[in-house]
Design goal:
alpha/beta; 5-stranded parallel sheet; 5 helices; 42% helix
């Protein structure tokens, strides 16, 4: 079972079509996620303390590079793996940084 946060739930139809063998669960808010946490294998972007406490088996993937606010002590205690999407953003951030540097050096103002 794969549980999706509200913002990822917009892609639910596409995910179900691309991965018909997986069971996707959409959540509407944090309380809904906690109520569906039992027996979830993977969480996409849900990492609240209440959700982590309610889950019986879990791996968490964030959609962001940052994992601020994750309950690290609880994750460690429960043996839950938390991964982020930092590799997805590196090349784009480098491109953006270089573009801004060129804009500044050529005095282009937006």
């Amino acid at each position: 079972k794969i549980i999706l946060s509200k913002r990822i739930g917009d892609f639910l139809d596409d995910l179900q079509q691309d991965f018909p063998e997986a069971e996707f669960i959409h959540t509407s808010d944090d309380d809904d996620a906690v109520s569906k946490a039992v027996d979830v294998d993977v969480s996409f972007d849900i990492r609240t303390r209440g959700f982590v406490e309610a889950a019986t088996q879990l791996r968490i993937q964030t959609v962001s590079a940052g994992v601020n606010g994750a309950p690290f002590e609880l994750l460690k205690k429960r043996g839950i793996t938390l991964t982020n999407a930092s590799a997805n953003y590196g090349p784009n951030m480098a491109d953006h940084t270089l573009a801004l540097m060129l804009m500044l050096s050529r005095q282009i103002h937006i």
